[in-house]
Amino acid sequence: MKERLVGVSEETTTGVKRLYQMQANGTLLFPAINGNDSVTKSKFDNLYGCRHSLPDGLMRATDVMIAGKMAVVCGYGDVGKGCAAALEIDPICALQALVEGLRVLTLEDVVSQADIFVTTTGNKDISWLTT
């Protein structure tokens, strides 16, 4: 397959980091374009694109309404901010709660209560499964 590839475009921070690592150690087999670091990608697509695509994708993939569900967003970069904005029913209430001293919870604190988990970090160990 690599012989047929003209090149690739990578649009995630973690993916771009991996491509730079591959380039440095000589294992990158084809040209790669870093689309992640363009201003329009990082400031518009990451933040605003998620506001539309996350709820739409969740409902299409699961055929379940997300209204009334508890969602947890792990990460608060541009993608995390867009996801949180999409899933927060009343951002003014969320801000008021924060200002009034309510704490931001860890994943361990909410794992047994949440219905939806969205990870928006490049951290491969952010989620886990135990049986």
From TrEMBL:
Keywords: NAD, One-carbon metabolism. It is an enzyme of class 3 (hydrolase). It catalyses: S-adenosyl-L-homocysteine + H2O = L-homocysteine + adenosine. Its EC number is 3.13.2.1. It comes from the Eukaryota. One of its GO terms (cellular component) is cytosol. One of its GO terms (biological process) is one-carbon metabolic process. The keyword NAD applies. Pathway: Amino-acid biosynthesis; L-homocysteine biosynthesis; L-homocysteine from S-adenosyl-L-homocysteine: step 1/1. It holds the Pfam family AdoHcyase_NAD. Residues 46-131 form the S-adenosyl-L-homocysteine hydrolase NAD binding domain. This is adenosylhomocysteinase. The keyword Kinase does not apply. Belongs to the adenosylhomocysteinase family. Its cofactor is NAD(+).
